[in-house]
Amino acid sequence: MSLKAYENIELNITVVCFLRTVWCGLQFLSFHFQFLKQYEFFDDTTIKEGKTLSGIYTYKIYRVKSKMPWILQKLLPDEAFEIHEESWNAYPYCKTILT
């Protein structure tokens, strides 16, 4: 295995640990997510302006309705309790968008 492969694995582990810390801090200990896409990208300039990078793109949907107060669950539609995450990981750069 090459050094670049190890660096990508290290980055993914770091991102997972960070997200676990953030979500646990918000008390989202058990939530459901749907892993929709994952693929490698090559020669992309969307992560860092002026740099052409390669890495892994992932798209996930987190469903957090069961963790919200009862009144919000009744008032809001199901789509309001979905968090969409798009992530571009190109060591040492990472870009994540939550919507």
Automatic annotation (TrEMBL):
Domain Phosphatidylinositol transfer protein N-terminal: 41-99
Leader peptide range in chain numbering: none
InterPro entries: PI_transfer, PI_transfer_N, START-like_dom_sf
Pfam families assigned: IP_trans (PF02121)
Record-level Gene Ontology MF annotations: phosphatidylcholine binding; phosphatidylcholine transporter activity; phosphatidylinositol binding; phosphatidylinositol transfer activity
Entry GO CC: cytoplasm
Descriptive protein name: Phosphatidylinositol transfer protein N-terminal domain-containing protein
Organism: Trichostrongylus colubriformis
Origin organism lineage: Eukaryota, Metazoa, Ecdysozoa, Nematoda, Chromadorea
